[in-house]
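User: I'll paste a sequence; please echo it back and then give the predicted structure.

Assistant: Echoing your sequence first, then the prediction.
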Amino acid sequence: MQVNTYIDHTILKPTTSREEIVKLCGEAASYNFAAVCVPPPFVRLAKQLLEQTHVKTATVLGFPFGYSAIEAKVAEAVLAIVDGADELDMVINLIAVRNADWAYLEKEIATLTGLIHTKQKVIKVIIESGILSDEEIIRCCEICVRCQVDFVKTSTGYAEKGASVEAVQLMRSHLPAPIQIKASGGVRTYTFAQQLIAAGATRIGASSSVAIVQQQPAGSENGY
């Protein structure tokens, strides 16, 4: 299995340096990863560094807690697209989920999806599956189906629990084939990445990407 082509090579820690972005993009190009996922202030730099490659540039919206207003997420999306982002990973409003405000959640996802698709970009909706009940995960998937998102993503990597095979399987069983799944949060080994892909993930978010493809032990040095 060519796991490299599934990977979003990621660094999202709040103290990320320019040098780390240069290194990340160099590795992504060398290993032909699917994308890099970087903090919003580094989108323009990443796009420039990857200009002569097939590697996509991704960033995050409402990260990591998701409770910023819809208008704030829209502003973040507009700026990221102007800077050259190809893919946008948005954290949903988890307060809305926990309080069963499904109308608000659908409005948020529909608004961002509409904007991002108008610009011919990709949206990945982060539901933070590790802290949701099965019923909440299913309800989020149903809303994502109605909004026709591109990906549903398991986790930010900042909650107490990240990706799991069980969550990916549950998501896959409640999403049509055109909606893909990104598994992220705590993915640090080749074996675990393989298991998530077998469960239905078509993209893996990881900071230990090089160790994964080399099938070597890895830490969580990039906070993901």
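The chain has one domain: 3-213. The chain has a mean pLDDT of 96.
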